[in-house]
């Protein structure tokens, strides 16, 4: 059975990371490896990661950001499946097999993501029926049973949890590192996947918990400022006819961008992966 490389960035927030890793170990019978990229943690995170079984650990001395860190993970990954997973998530029973099943049943799907409690509206479940992590597993099991085999095409996916075949990296490259430290690199990745001819899919039958902005809070990074700065970089790259504030606060239509870019041009759309 094909291996999944679970790529996870960390920068402090050890309690969140432990909770996420514990949930993966508990709920993932499928073959997988961890690829951890620590972006300069000053707590005990690096020592903890070094002792996680079946893991490759990359320790950066400073914060290289979400895109660059994940690109390091892409280069180190050995799996046929590549999965980006934020360290402020908690996964649930059948999460990985549920996501994989969509990729396997429809070759047109390039990236698949789950639904969650704290995510952009396209993947958000309103008023999920649990109040704390102790109730999460039962709630997720009920949700999966009620929504089994349901999902929908999406105009973009959010990078808190994304699964795709390794071949997608060969097709479109990695994440665009201009979007430092984080925000809009997942929008950009989604758009480039669509321009390359692949579809995006939301698996309604897979629910995972997401704390949301966990790493930003743990490291006292101004999430709103970072988002607005990267919205401007996104506007410039894709010639979006809105202000950064409008893009960030009210959204934009990714399909408008895809419609203007009918052909995948490697010089414009492919992001080479660096060696380190």
Automatic annotation (TrEMBL):
<feature type="domain" description="Glycosyltransferase 2-like">
    <location>
        <begin position="5"/>
        <end position="172"/>
    </location>
</feature>
<dbReference type="InterPro" id="IPR001173">
    <property type="entry name" value="Glyco_trans_2-like"/>
</dbReference>
<dbReference type="Pfam" id="PF00535">
    <property type="entry name" value="Glycos_transf_2"/>
</dbReference>
<comment type="similarity">
    <text>Belongs to the glycosyltransferase 2 family.</text>
</comment>
<comment type="pathway">
    <text>Cell wall biogenesis; cell wall polysaccharide biosynthesis.</text>
</comment>
<protein>
    <submittedName>
        <fullName>Glycosyltransferase family 2 protein</fullName>
        <ecNumber>2.4.-.-</ecNumber>
    </submittedName>
</protein>
<dbReference type="GO" id="GO:0016757">
    <property type="term" value="F:glycosyltransferase activity"/>
</dbReference>
<keyword id="KW-0328">Glycosyltransferase</keyword>
<keyword id="KW-0808">Transferase</keyword>
<dbReference type="InterPro" id="IPR029044">
    <property type="entry name" value="Nucleotide-diphossugar_trans"/>
</dbReference>
């Amino acid at each position: 059975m094909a291996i999944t490389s679970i790529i996870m960035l960390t920068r402090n927030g050890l309690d969140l990371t432990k909770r996420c890793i514990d949930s993966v170990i508990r709920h993932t019978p499928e073959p997988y490896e961890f690829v951890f990229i620590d972006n300069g943690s000053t707590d005990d995170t690096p020592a903890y990661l070094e002792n996680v079984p079946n893991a490759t650990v990359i320790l950066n001395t400073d914060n290289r950001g979400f895109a660059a860190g994940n690109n390091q993970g892409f280069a180190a990954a050995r799996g046929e499946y590549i999965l980006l997973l934020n360290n402020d998530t908690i996964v649930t029973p059948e999460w990985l097999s549920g996501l994989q099943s969509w990729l396997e049943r429809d070759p047109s799907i390039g990236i698949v993501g789950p639904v969650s409690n704290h995510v952009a509206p396209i993947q958000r479940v309103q008023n999920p029926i649990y109040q704390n992590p102790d109730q999460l597993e039962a709630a997720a099991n009920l949700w999966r049973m009620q929504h089994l085999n349901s999902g929908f095409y999406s105009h973009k996916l959010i990078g808190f949890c994304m699964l795709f075949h390794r071949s997608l990296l060969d097709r479109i490259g990695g994440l665009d590192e201009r979007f430092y430290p984080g925000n809009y690199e997942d929008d950009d990745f989604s758009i480039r996947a669509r321009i390359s001819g692949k579809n995006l899919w939301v698996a309604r039958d897979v629910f995972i918990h997401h704390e949301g902005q966990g790493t930003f809070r743990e490291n006292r990074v101004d999430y709103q400022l970072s988002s607005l700065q990267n919205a401007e970089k996104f506007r410039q790259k894709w010639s979006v006819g809105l202000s950064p504030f409008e893009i960030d606060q009210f959204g934009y239509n990714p399909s408008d961008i895809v419609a203007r870019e009918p052909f995948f041009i490697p010089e414009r759309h492919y992001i080479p992966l660096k060696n380190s």
